[in-house]
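for the recovery benchmark. tokens below, seq after
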């Protein structure tokens, strides 16, 4: 994108075309180039344009609002299927919870990115295949492969959403990194929507209670279900039409929490040594240890996504590097514990899934740490770290396919 901007710096029409083709990538590339282009009148104009933050919230067109309302209603009705058709909730929700929201979000990006019909059919076909497959699996309550398939199916659908977000465009690594940033922004926006919805729910229920009408059961079974299903859809719509809403919040969260998590992780590792607890002989502790690892890795990736978006100081790069190193150490402990348990008690679906996941995460963290080190020694640009993360995401997608669709067959649905 940088080269394209430089080549078309004297061509306003072509610059506008580049901007409309991929706005996030254009903004990041232009911000990197602008210090060298301040003597150019057109560059100054684009700098003012890109840094102008409108004060009013855009609610989009009537077609967009109609789409969001319809998608939210459909998602709500999907969530209500067990109660409407007398289906066992314990059977339905673990298998189908991902289909409540992800197809609607994919449809939004199909429409927004104007994807080619062939690509839409491929993603829709993959979603349908997942829907049919997961509901045809034997209903064995003690099946570890069923639990793993349900968990990884949600990650599979999340990966398909990533493909829809990227669309048919070039600059795949940058778009994939943009997808990670979108997830961070969506968490912030959806959290705010749910907090506001929770306050409205409490006020509504108590107001009716004051006049002697108890509506809590009806409210949660109907309005509450639709509200929960609609929250991420509305959150996505708001973050895409008004990026300024959380554009300044997400970097602050990344800047504050990265050093705090680093300190917490170091203290936790020291405390673990003195507590006598270890993941080698305690299965529940190993599960929590892996959950901690995934959470910290997500924070690293989110911090990198925010760091590549704007120019950052060396101190913040150091924090991300140290956090990566400590997380690699945590991953090493978890991986050795898994190998120990396999050598002692043999292979199981859960151990195989955790072993594969931790190995992939370790490789990813090592690649990221190496790139960050090169940034610190001035050998690489911070954007290279983002490209490394973006280019590795398809590896996780392949792993979700293996665990979801292959593990039940390999282990005989055990």
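predicted aa per position
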């Amino acid at each position: 994108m940088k080269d394209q901007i430089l080549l078309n710096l004297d061509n306003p029409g072509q610059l506008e075309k580049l901007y409309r083709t991929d706005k996030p990538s254009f903004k990041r590339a232009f911000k990197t180039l602008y210090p060298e282009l301040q003597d150019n009148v057109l560059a100054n104009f684009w700098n003012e344009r890109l840094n102008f933050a409108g004060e009013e919230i855009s609610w989009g067109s009537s077609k967009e609002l109609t789409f969001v309302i319809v998608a939210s209603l459909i998602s709500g009705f999907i969530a209500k299927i067990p109660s409407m058709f007398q289906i066992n909730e314990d059977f339905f929700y673990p298998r189908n919870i991902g289909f409540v929201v992800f197809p609607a979000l994919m449809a939004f990006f199909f429409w927004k990115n104007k994807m080619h019909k062939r690509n839409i059919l491929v993603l829709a076909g993959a979603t349908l295949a997942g829907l049919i497959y997961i509901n045809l699996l034997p209903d064995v309550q003690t099946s570890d492969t069923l639990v793993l398939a349900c968990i990884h199916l949600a990650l599979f659908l999340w990966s398909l959403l990533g493909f829809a977000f990227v669309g048919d465009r070039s600059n795949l690594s940058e778009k994939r990194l943009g997808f990670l940033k979108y997830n961070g922004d969506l968490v912030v926006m959806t959290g705010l929507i749910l907090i506001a919805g929770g306050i409205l729910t409490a006020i509504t229920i108590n107001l009716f209670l004051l006049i002697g009408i108890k509506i809590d059961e009806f409210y949660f079974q109907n309005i509450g279900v639709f509200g929960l299903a609609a929250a991420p859809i509305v959150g996505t719509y708001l973050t895409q039409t008004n990026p300024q809403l959380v554009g300044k919040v997400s970097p602050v969260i990344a800047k504050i929490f990265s050093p705090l998590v680093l300190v917490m992780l170091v203290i936790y590792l020291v405390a673990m040594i003195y507590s006598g607890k270890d993941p080698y002989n305690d299965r529940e502790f190993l599960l929590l240890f892996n959950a901690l690892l995934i959470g910290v890795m997500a924070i690293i990736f989110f911090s990198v996504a925010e760091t590549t978006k704007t120019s950052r100081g060396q101190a913040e790069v150091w924090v991300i590097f140290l956090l990566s190193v400590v997380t690699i150490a945590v991953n090493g402990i978890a991986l050795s514990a898994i190998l120990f348990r396999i050598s002692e008690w043999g292979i199981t679906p859960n151990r195989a899934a955790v072993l594969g996941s931790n190995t992939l995460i370790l490789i990813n963290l090592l690649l990221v740490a190496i790139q960050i080190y090169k940034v610190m020694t001035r050998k690489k640009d911070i954007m290279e770290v983002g490209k490394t993360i973006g280019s590795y995401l398809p590896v996780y997608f392949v792993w979700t396919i293996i665990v979801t669709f292959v593990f039940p067959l390999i282990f005989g649905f055990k």
